[in-house]
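Dear colleagues,

For the upcoming journal club I promised to circulate an example of a predicted protein-ligand complex. I picked one with calcium ion because it came up in last month's discussion. The inputs are reproduced below in full, followed by the predicted structure.
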Amino acid sequence: MKILLVEDERKIREWVAKALRESGFVVDPVGDGNDAYDLLKTRSYDGAVLDIMLPGRDGLSLLRSIRREGINLPVLVLSARGEWDERVEGLNLGADDYLPKPFHVDELVARLRAVCRRSKGDQLNLVEAGPVRMNVATREVSVGGNALELTAREFSLLEMLVRSPGRVFTRTQILDRVWDYDFDPQTNLVDVYVKRLRQHLGEENRDWIDTVRGVGYRFKG
Ligand code: CA
């Protein structure tokens, strides 16, 4: 995991960078808000540690700018103890967590891990292929931006196909994964559900679910 560390006090920056590296993070340390902004615009990070008082551009205005521009990496904000207004402002601007100075570096590492994990968790909940977008946490599904109402079983079947575009699943594999009880191998349950899913997808998108003759089904990749 690659982290941008923005802190102008050299001692703190070096100490935090060292601790993060020892914990397995890759770290780009910078001491200036404008440099940090340029890096966030041009490189890809898994998270950032952001001090508030910085030369060039302060941490909160930096945070406001990147959120406005749709840069959604997890951000842990650092600030001097007791600056509660800044804390509230930071969280309102889209900080994922806040740590008052002075802090224990172990706590910083633990908090940073937590915000990065939460952010990855959100990404894992999103399943997308072709025109289909699914959020497995909220059970929302849309096709070409239009929301669909699916039953739990329909959702599971579509999720299985959409998670692995291009991969062919046999009827037995589908039954095994989507219907977790003993079934009659002669059942046409899978075909019935695929037909329903195609109806949900509509005329325009029904062909995204491909019948592989004599084998099973796949979502086009
Ligand atoms: Ca500072």
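Two points we might discuss: Residues 8-9, 51, 53-54 surround calcium ion (CB under 6 Å). The CA atoms of residues 64 and 139 lie 31 Å apart.

See you all on Thursday,
B. R.
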